Each structure stands twice: as C-alpha cells, then as structure tokens.
Amino acid sequence: MSLPKIDPTSTHAWKKLQVHFQSMEEVRMKELFEQNPDRANKLSLEWEDFYVDFSKNRLTEETLALLFQLAKEVKLETAIKAYFSGEKINETEQRAVLHTALRAKETDEIFVDGENVVPKVFKVKQHIENFTNSIVNGSKKGYTGKPFTDIVNIGIGGSDLGPAMVVSSMEFYKNHLNTHFISNIDGDHVHELLKKLNPETTLFVVVSKTFSTQETLTNAHTIKEWFLQIANHEAISKHFVAVTTNTEKAKAFGVNTDNIFPIWDWVGGRFSLWSAVGLSISLAIGFENFNKLLSGANKMDTHFKTEPFQKNIPVVLALISIWYNNFFKTETEAVIPYSQYLNKFSAYLQQSCMESNGKSVDRNSKNVSYQTEGVVWGTPGTNSQHAFFQLIHQGTKLIPTDFIGFANALHKNKAHQDKLISNFIAQTEALLFGKTKEAVLQELQNQNVPKEQMERLLPYKVFEGNKPTNTIFIHKLTPESLGKLIAMYEHKIFVQGVIWNIFSFDQFGVELGKQLAGNILEKMQKNSFDNLDASTSKLLQFYKKLT
Ligand SMILES: O=P(O)(O)OC[C@H]1O[C@H](O)[C@H](O)[C@@H](O)[C@@H]1O
C-alpha cells in the first residue's frame, strides 16, 4: 500500500470549492454568527482536555462538507492507514514514516520489512530510562567523581529544534540539571556556551541521525578539544553520549558503545523528539514525564486514526488551512501560543511544516499547479500583540492565526492568568468583529475630539475585522497535553501533504546549499576563486581581504 497519487484539482470537490469560494470570499463572519446562534457549538470540538473552536473562520457547514469531500476523494483514509501501518510512504527515500511507533503501546505490533519494531523501541526506552535515572540521581558521575550538573545537546534541525522546544516548554517540570542546546556552526555560539561550563560536571549528548552533519560534527569536535585540554582521553567515555543511526561513526568519534542510543531510518529528523533524540528532554524533566509526553502523543494518534473526519481535530485544522491557502490564496499562517513556556514552538513548527510541505513536485513527479505550504510564523502572546498584531488587525494581508492557550496557570497566579486569558480571548473577538465606523465615531465623540479632527482620524481607527482564527484551548500545560499538541500539528502536516499530493517526508531542498558550501570552503582553503560567478567570487575576495 502506498500513498494515493491524486491531483487535488482533478477532484469534484475542488471544482465545487472554487465555485463555493466565490460566494464566500466576501462573507462576513459576524453575519454568519448572527444567522446561526448555534455556530460556536457546531464549529468546535471537545476532546479530552482540548477545546478547539474553529467557528471564527470564513466558512459554513457547506464549506466543511466540501472540504471533507475533498479529503475523501484524495483517499485520505487510505493514506492514514498506510501512514500508521509502516508502509514505505516516504517513497523518494524508500522509508516508512513511523514516529507514531515511538509512542506506541508495548502490546502494539507495527511491522517494517516484516519486523515488529515495537520491541526495539521499548528496548531503547529502557536504556533512556536507566541512563536518565543514573544521571538525575547522581549515581553516574563525571571523570573526577562529581555528579553531573549540566547537559549539552549538540545537534541541529530536527536533532535540536524538537528537544529544545520541549525542554523550554516544560521548564516548570524541570529538575536540577541545566540543559543547553548548541546548534549553529557559528563559533561564537559554542564559545559563549563553553564559558559557562565545567568539564568535570557536564554531559555532552551528540545528536545526529546521520552523524555526518557539518554543524554538529564541527561543534562536537570543538567541544571535545576543549574537554581534552583539561581531561584525559578515557574521560570521553564518561562525558560523551551519541544518538544516531550511524553507530560506526559515533564510535569513531570516541563514544563508548554503551553510550550510543540508536534511532532508525523510519524516524524523520523533524519528527524524532519522541525517540532517543529526546534524551535531553528525558534528562531535563525525568523519564516519567518524558513517557507522559509520549503517551499524550499516542492519545492524539488514536484520535486521528479512529475519529471520523468531522470530529477529527488534525483533519479539520488541515482542511481549514487548505481552504485559506488554496482558495483565499493566503501566504502565511501565524501560530500564537499564550504561554511564555512555548516561546520556541513557532521555530519548531517552522521546520516541521515548511521542511515537510514546502514542495513543488507532486507524487506523480509533476510540478504542482497549486500552492503548497505557506510560511508559518509566530511569537507568544501577549508579546506579539505589542509587536506585529498591528499588521494582522489592519494590514493588507489576510493571516489565518492559531491561538493556543492553557486555562490553568502552572504558578497559579490568578491575577496574571485572568489578564493573560482575557487577552487571548479578546484578540480573536477583535479579529472577528473589528470596529465599525459608528463605534469609532461614538468613541471620538465621547472623547470630545473636534469635528474636523474626527473626520481625519476616522479611517485610521476603523478595524475591518473578519480575520480568521482557530482557538486551541487546553486545560493545562503538562507533558501529556504538550505531547497531544505536537502530535496534532504533526498529523495536520500529514493531512495537508496527502491533499497536496506531495511527499512530506523527504527534504532534498536543503542539500544544494550544503554542497555549494563545501565547494566554497575548498576554494577558500585553496585560495582559488576560479569558475565562480562574478558576485560569488567578489564576496569571497571581500572575505579574504578582511580575514
Ligand atoms: O540529525 P542529522 O542527521 O544531523 O540532521 C539534522 C538536520 O539536517 C538536515 O539538513 C535536515 O534538513 C534536517 O531534517 C535534519 O534534522
């Protein structure tokens, strides 16, 4: 079973959606709410500790019915089965896509090439648990006999963004270990970090699926050299661990076999935080919490796998996003978490969404004739309100926005929480209704603004409204609810990739720059600038002159 290969524009639903769009383009959501008092009930889903309100969108039940029909016509149901069953749906790399197996139950059976992979997932989980416990309780010590105080995750892309996002989102649940992330090849990044570290009490986790990524290996070697200026060679086995599919390369780097945590080629980098790539998560918040994160994701997997499309949160969110992207021709989507803990969430989503679905060739090797992934961006509320919300409210671009909020504050400061949540709710209300001329006039009159000034100010103060939002309201930020939230977006990405008829699990687009950087480095070292275009050659010469 492979993924269906249906051009979405060839479906009946697509054509009907194009016609339907003409009647919806100018629709006012305010009127839709007036016409249907039950709209907020009809267009929302409650599942476990999640409340997802998608009523503040430019759509009707008819729109949704057509979008569900689209999902049916492109055979989304078959695709979901193939995704969970271990079929090689990453066809361009001939790999299965099984991040869902990393959070499966021990009794589940998931086969790749005839082998049930669940037992080996659990074997590694056991290793993660034992290792985590021995570091957290201090029984495993550094080369001078001191317990560890600091953990450094050395990785980039999926080997950095997921773990870094979860560790920062879970700060409330953190133990005494300080966790650091080093990713950029910029030497200033690693040197700033090394200034803060004591080699006697620091554990380095080198995370690289391939163990051949330039940034990660360069940082790992620099750190190793720094470490060896103080410690001896034997100490490496106590202070360096690796997470990789490439055991041989990790051994060649000097990592002890016992300290190598395997991952598998059916785990995509940007979906790998659930595997041993999440070792720094487990170290930071303890294995029990790491396991809760996994079980939250597993619950979302079951929801996604079993609920009919109408009640399926990732399916509904994916279809709404397609409605704007492909029919309203929106270019970007904002994701605004109303939690400072989630300040790395958008950066994480940028990789998972844009590296997955930023493609222009379909599953039949043809260029697509429609838009695929848009730009994903955002910053936590309320900070974003004081930065770029001006553009969302009054700019010329239509930006569908996801608002993510948690009802219960972790630090139980009710005064802050009430203010935070009133902003969270008020913004979607403001985006929906805007502010009419009449309301602005009334306000200016109340302020006794002179008449001629009033007329001049009026257009600037009007808010057009009718800006679409989804509200994802969750009881509380816990390892389990975060697991659900991340898995929700993972499945949204999957659904969109299926509908756009693209391969979501390769990333050939990142290769060219890497290759050319290799060539340029060689030219730099050889001091020869031949066979380059005039601009590139001049840039190199400029660099050469200054260094
Ligand atoms: O884990 P690694 O093999 O070091 O790869 C790290 C990252 O680099 C690649 O260029 C890809 O764009 C990412 O998907 C990947 O997560």
TrEMBL record:
Coiled coil: none
Transmembrane segments annotated in the record for this chain: none
Record's GO cellular component terms: cytosol
Catalytic activity field: alpha-D-glucose 6-phosphate = beta-D-fructose 6-phosphate
Pfam families the record matches: PGI (PF00342)
GO molecular function annotations of the record: carbohydrate derivative binding; glucose-6-phosphate isomerase activity; monosaccharide binding
PROSITE patterns linked to this entry: P_GLUCOSE_ISOMERASE_1, P_GLUCOSE_ISOMERASE_2, P_GLUCOSE_ISOMERASE_3
EC number: 5.3.1.9
UniProt keyword annotations, A-Z: Cytoplasm, Gluconeogenesis, Glycolysis, Isomerase
EC class: isomerase
Protein biosynthesis is among the record's keywords: no
Subcellular location(s) of the protein: Cytoplasm
GO process terms (BP): gluconeogenesis; glucose 6-phosphate metabolic process; glycolytic process
InterPro entries referenced in this protein's UniProt entry, alphabetically: G6P_Isomerase (IPR001672), G6P_Isomerase_C (IPR023096), Phosphoglucose_isomerase_CS (IPR018189), SIS_dom_sf (IPR046348), SIS_PGI_1 (IPR035476), SIS_PGI_2 (IPR035482)
Domain of life the protein comes from: Bacteria
Residues at the catalytic site: E355 (proton donor), H386, K514
Pathway(s) the chain acts in: Carbohydrate biosynthesis; gluconeogenesis; Carbohydrate degradation; glycolysis; D-glyceraldehyde 3-phosphate and glycerone phosphate from D-glucose: step 2/4
NCBIfam families hit by this protein: PRK00179.1
Function, as annotated: Catalyzes the reversible isomerization of glucose-6-phosphate to fructose-6-phosphate.
Family recorded in the similarity comment: Belongs to the GPI family.
Name of this protein: Glucose-6-phosphate isomerase
Source organism: Xanthomarina gelatinilytica
